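Chain X:
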Amino acid sequence: MNQLSVEQIKGVGPKLAETLEQINIHTVEDLLYYFPNRYDHYEQKPLHELIHNEKVTIVGEVLQEPMVTFYGRKKSRLTVNIRVDGAVVKGVMFNRPFAKKHFVAGDTISVNGKWDQHRLQITIDQYKKGSMNADNPISPIYSSKGDIKNAQFQKIIKQTIQDYQEEISEFMPAPFLTKYKLPDRVTGFSEMHFPSSFQQLKHAKRRFIYEELLLFQIKMQLYRKRNREATEGNAQVINMEQVKQLIQQFPFTLTEAQKKSLTDIFQDLHSPYRMNRLLQGDVGSGKTAVAVISLYGTVTAGKQVAFMVPTEILAEQHEASLKELLPKEVTIHRLTGSIKGKKRQQILSEVEDGSCQVVIGTHALIQDDVHFRDLAYVIIDEQHRFGVHQRNTLREKGILADMLYMTATPIPRTLSITAFGDMDVSKIDEMPKGRKPVETYWVKQNMFERTVNFIYKEIKKGSQAYIICPLIEESDKLDIQNALDLFAQLQEVLQGKATVGLMHGRLSTEEKEQVMLDFASNNVQILVSTTVVEVGVNVPNATVMMIQDADRFGLSQLHQLRGRVGRGDKQSYCILVADPKGETGKERMRIMTETTDGFELAERDLELRGPGDLFGVKQSGLPEFKLADLVHDYRALETARTDAIELVEHQFWKDPDYQDLFNYLQKELDLDKQTLA
């Protein structure tokens, strides 16, 4: 059935097939999986059960003749009062003045449309005299392109279910259908397209949400198994005694979360399979210390390490940290785009002959002229900043290298299961002792001068400040204080009492690096910047972060920015300057002032914004699901993941009861039983 072209369906000719292709419907199966995007229903409910902003049906008595007002060319508004359940509901209808004669005082009328709970008002789409016909209470509405009408869509789907139901085979294992009380595939399709009741529609949705998530999670687990087992033979012989000595010499004590992450990582480094691990840690939680200790383990095993970071200044900072923390005999080199000529050649030859044990760099590490002698461990910082292709190129340089990806973006559990389902995840969810939480305040735009005075007082104490703007220059569409204006304004207000620097995306890489170096060395006390400072720059002397138009940012981004301060032992402050109009903007400001826990913020951001906004779907590689919603269906996601792990661990492809499931997956995956054996 899945390979049958839509042209095989009765009533679908070449022209209609072409229209269907525009919305990615090529086969009979594609058509059946093209679910309605909403349902109209004429089920009459009491007023108190109606849901704000949803389509509803109400039946009542017309109280008096409607009033029609005209405005603009051919524009009109009809208003009618209808008595329903002892209350008066206002009905509003646009651009249909002729309907006035259909609403007669004293008549019973049924109207269908969008309900406004606050105004007791319905925006009428359809109306008829008497009560609505409840024979077909739930009507599917499809989003479609071209000339295809909703009624035509319904007709061809009805025809398809009727003609092909014998060929719609079930591939979901019977134990799962029984365990979760899910309908079979034929019933599921039938109820999704033509629900017999809301209860049955709910069950059908549950079935397809679980199916979608289970198939995705099995693919993830199979992918993980194949990658892991394709690289046997890279077990590292680490001198754990030397590693322990290094930890004892650290100027601070590791937190329990850091110790747990190190245990996970060392287990992977010792194992014969390739590590593919994500290390999540909130800003300032001590991921770098974990990276340094684990890479030293690889050095004691006589192998090489590559440490990849997104910017040159971060590479310099990591180089300084490593040289400070690791024993003097470890050879560490930095390889970035700005290192050229003889110096570059020298580093390349030491990397190639193995005398350089640790190389830190930007994407310069993945250029063709970089050859490692024995690369065994690759650490990628702020992993979502690198494309999948860049990560894979680096992986291929050390054919058997273990991979550790680090991110300071707190990823909610549901997203880490989905976006990083093929990875193991370690989480540093506690802060080092003695670290003072950043105090966060929300102020209005009219307090700008007071805020600048506060910043100046901090600078007089020897501190530094960031001021962040959303845009570089004036935008017609958004009334946002921009970086260039603010830079000029501050210079005027401070009149040389403090040096102000400017950083934005249009500067060249060299210019950006110079500005950051000036700031890091305190030649610049106030840095006005767009969000380019978000990633990993460490200036412990910076104690104030002021964010202009803070309501334009998501919670995760605000938290990342706030993480640029509070990195030393002084009390630090984050000042959010915003006049949010909507409730969501106000809620974001409130949440920011209430918590400094990045994981809690990420969960709240996910609820407020949805997964696509949080990550930018394209850059994160998040799958787009037809029905499943990562926020609301997180329980189904976790269940599907647990089931998928169990299926793959028990090699379900060998079990006759799971053959249909494996065969269905095989069409989409380039896998056969030999590959998995």
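Chain Y:
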Amino acid sequence: MTNSIYISTAEPNSGKALVALGILENSLRKSSKVGFFKPVIGDYNSGKEDEHISLVIDHFGLDLNYEEAYGLTLKRANELISQGKKDEMLEIVISKYKKLEERFDFILIESSDYKNSITLEHSLNIEFAKNLASPVLVLTNAHNKSIDDCIDALRVAIDDFASNDCEVIGSIVNRVNTDIINDLNTELAKQFKGNKMLLSTVPADDRMSSPTVRDIVEHTNAKVLYGEKNLDVLVDNITIAAMQMQNFLPKIKENSLVITPGDRSDILLGTISAHRAQSYPNVSGMLLTTGLEPDDSIKQVIDGMKDMFPILSVPENTYLTANFANEVHASMRANDLSRISYAKELFDKHVDSKILSELLATVKVKGMTPKMFQYTLTERARQKKARIVLPEGNDHRVLEASAILASQDIVDIILLGKKEEIVDVARKNAITIDFDKIEIINPVEYVKFNEYVNTLYELRKHKGMNLDMATDAMSDVSYFGTMMVQMGDANGMVSGAVHTTAATIRPALQVIKTKPGTSVVSSVFFMSLPDRVLVYGDCAVNPNPNSEQLAEIAISSAETAIAFGIEPKIAMLSYSSGSSGSGEQVEKVRAATEIAKEKRPDLKIEGPIQYDAAVDPTVGAQKMPGSEVAGQANVLVFPDLNTGNNTYKAVQRETGAIAIGPVLQGLNKPVNDLSRGCLVEDILNTVIITAIQGNQA
């Protein structure tokens, strides 16, 4: 039977998103075949989807479409129950769940959202857990509750499930006030002594519970007048401004949403001024009520200001609007990588991973999955923290990745650029980043700048470089970052989100240079398929390598694979297999294979060989019987850049594989290149790879 866990809440706002993200993250480290299912979802207007379903499918890239991920709507469930067709309702849910059960090794089942009748939805969750034969993990919300209240709510929910023959495997109490968390843990252990259960508490955290301005917009149906790009800032406080300006200003708190009638231009302009002043807290936004908008003269003032915080407008009066705003709860979206990362971090820190592992121990492992590979890499990087320099400190993607890497304590990040500009980019893009954990260096002000200039001059003077030229070059962040690596002030560099590949590689070739015995710098991609990880080389650097270069690329790719825990079986790819074909390109690959075998007789190398014969056991056995590589190759070396680049992109797009790279190889010290269209996830993966390389250099 497929393994599953049913997470059910005892009441609304109990932190299901945090728990779902944590459990799915852990499950995907064991198997790629992980599903998500909600027996009942709320009744949404046309075009709007269940937030949690969209979140987990999009963030984790689950092999699941939206319609498959739920049974039926709450409205439809109510209709069937009122018609005496409860069994039909259960059959719909069970039928859709069983289809998932055939496809997945583990399914996380999530209860309804308690947005309607708590009694009805709780009884439905008991029915679904029982009929799907899934063990239950009960969640509850401890916000503003006493210890006794928390225990009572948990006890009632657990007893309800247990009395209906549902196995309860544990509980998680979310949003616990820090002053009672230790006593609550003690009382939980006492109350449930002798029960083999997961008993965990997660402290209250504003970053998880505070809504964003975007949440306010969606809940109040507000019109966005200004600051649309800053809607993702958090709202920690709501402040109503009805008094005179001098009396209102002292009331402003950090990250407040200020609510005031739309004709209070004094409040509007005063709040903007206070937000921009260093002596006042930051304001998250303003919500103007009564449908009145600033007149033209006020708009002219605002239009002249850069980076305006969100200013919203609603037709309702101030009293109703304040009530609506106070009802808004934090939501999480797939593109909110910072908050998602923080949620996973909280889960890992406060939920007993040993007990969770025991609960999930029967999930069948299916080879090295993408999540397993990424998890292993992250843990390796974390075990021996490297210093990684990122020259493009002004890029918002680089900053978002840096925030995640710093908060998870994976590597020590060095950003190049002016601190005030970097901080401003973070603020404008609503990136929460702890700059105390990140080093920011302005190259021209660095204490070793002149030493770096002299070192570059000595390295390049035989090429005609003088000190002035060296000074100009070292003012360039790519050269400066490369020199930090060369001088041992950083373990590796990642660049290319803004700069070209040439701008990244050229300084590395001039300063760091290639390893002894290596004449060519090449690259690989780690292609994380659903059930395995393949190494593709070279898909990014060398347009048309000759036989000697191709052999060197194969050897470098094998060494990279070994460095990352993959035992290499190398396929030298061509359009024919073995001795069946001829032609210039086939002969190049055949010669490269012989050269590689001669240089490294310890490696398993086959070529020339076609892609299908390299990776498909049946085809491999037919075309090259007895081969140690055919049908089981995991390092695939392409004959040229055109073939390699198109193949990796085709596989990535058509299969949903995660492509990690390009990872440069052949340099004395690690420098890695990004695509200018890279995503935050690409930067994270490349930094982690570089950190591991740096620790091995």
